[in-house]
Design brief:
Length: 311
C-alpha cells in the first residue's frame, strides 16, 4: 500500500503510570528511525503525576523529531483515548505504545520498512518479550511464523498474532471506518479486524518491545458488555466495508449469524479466567482449536477443571 517515505506517527498513551512512564518515554525518544517522525505523548487525565514526568523527560529533548504533548481534560477511558489519538495523528503509519511498556530502538525503523516494501499491508506486528513489574524478563513471545495473515485466516480461526503491544496500523483503519464505539472494550483486536478488511497483516520475527505483564491490565479485565460491544463493532465495520465494496455480504451474514455463539464462547473464557489465568489459554488455544478432535477437547477440559477444583 505504501511505497514512498510517509510521515510516521508514534503515539504513546498513558494513564496513572508514574512507576514506568519515564522508561517508556526514553524508549520512544531513543528510536533509531532517521526519517520524519511525529511523536505524540498523550495522557488520559492521570490523577497522579504521570504527565508531569512526561513534560520533565521531554523538556531537554533536542532530537530531530516533532514532539506533541497532550493531556485530556477529562478521563476518556481506553477506547475514547485511542479515538482521540487517531484524531491527532498526521502520519500515514501509526505506531502505538503504552506507558508501561518499553520499545526497542529499531521498532519504528523495522515497521516502516515493512509498510514500504510489502503490498497491501495495513497492520504490522512484531515478536516481543514479557517483563514483570520490576522489568525482569519473563519470556520471549515468538510463537508465530513470519509472514502475511489475511481476513480469511482470521475468519477461519487460524492461529495468528493478535497482540497489540507491538502493533502499527495504516491510518485508513480509522479514517475509513471512523471512531471506535466506546463499548467495544479493546482496541487492538478491533483495529486488527478493520485492517484485515482493508488489506493484510504482516508479522515479523524481529523483537519490537518489552511488554509489561500486570495483573490489573485492561486486557485481563474485559467485561461481558465489552465482549458484546467488540462483536457488534466487528459487524458494524464489516457492513461499512461492504458499502465501500471491499468485502462481500457473506462476511456480514456469517458474523451476524454467529454473533450469539461468539459471545457465549467469550463468556466461557472469561468465566474460567477468574479460576486460573492459565486456564484461559487452555480454553482459548485447545478447546477452540480445530486441530483437536471433539472428544479430545472434552476429556482435556474435564481433566483440567477437576485438577483446578481439587486445589
Amino acid at each position: 500500500m505504501i511505497k514512498k517515505r510517509p510521515l510516521v506517527s508514534l503515539v504513546l498513551i498513558s494513564y496513572n503510570q508514574t512507576a514506568y512512564i519515564e522508561q517508556a518515554i526514553n524508549s520512544v525518544l531513543g528510536q533509531t528511525y532517521q526519517e520524519p517522525l511525529e511523536i505524540i505523548l498523550s495522557d488520559d487525565c492521570s490523577s497522579d503525576n504521570t504527565f508531569d514526568i512526561i513534560k520533565r523527560v521531554v523538556s531537554d529533548y533536542e532530537g530531530p523529531h516533532k514532539i506533541i504533548l497532550n493531556k485530556n481534560e477529562i478521563n476518556l477511558g481506553l477506547i475514547g483515548h485511542v479515538n482521540k489519538a487517531f484524531e491527532m495523528v498526521n502520519g500515514e503509519i501509526v505506531v502505538f505504545a503504552a506507558g508501561d511498556d518499553i520499545m526497542l530502538p529499531n521498532r519504528v525503523t523495522d515497521i516502516a520498512e515493512i509498510f514500504r516494501s510489502k503490498d497491501k499491508v495495513t497492520t504490522v506486528s512484531m515478536d516481543f518479550q514479557c517483563i514483570n513489574e520490576s522489568g525482569d524478563l519473563i519470556e520471549t513471545r515468538n510463537p508465530y511464523k513470519e509472514g502475511f495473515f489475511s481476513l480469511k485466516n482470521y475468519m477461519d480461526n487460524k492461529r495468528m498474532p493478535l497482540n497489540g503491544c507491538t502493533r502499527a496500523y495504516h491510518k485508513d483503519v480509522f479514517c475509513k471506518f471512523g471512531p471506535l464505539s466506546l463499548d467495544c472494550g479493546v482496541e487492538d483486536a478491533t483495529l486488527i479486524f478493520r485492517a484485515l478488511l482493508l488489506g493484510e497483516s504482516y508479522h515479523t520475527k524481529k523483537l519490537g518491545a518489552k511488554y509489561r505483564k500486570l495483573n490489573n491490565s485492561l486486557s485481563n479485565n474485559i467485561s461481558f458488555e465489552h465482549m458484546e460491544g467488540k462483536i457488534n463493532q466487528r459487524i458494524k465495520d464489516s457492513k461499512s466495508a461492504l458499502e465501500m465494496n471491499i468485502t462481500n455480504v457473506e462476511i456480514v451474514n456469517y458474523l451476524e449469524s454467529n454473533k450469539q455463539i461468539t459471545f457465549e464462547k467469550h463468556i466461557i473464557i472469561k468465566d474460567h479466567t477468574s479460576l486460573d489465568y492459565s486456564l484461559f489459554y487452555f480454553i482459548k488455544n485447545v478447546l477452540f482449536n480445530m486441530d483437536f478432535k471433539l472428544f479430545e477437547k472434552v476429556n482435556m477440559f474435564k481433566s483440567s477443571i477437576k485438577s483446578k477444583l481439587k486445589k
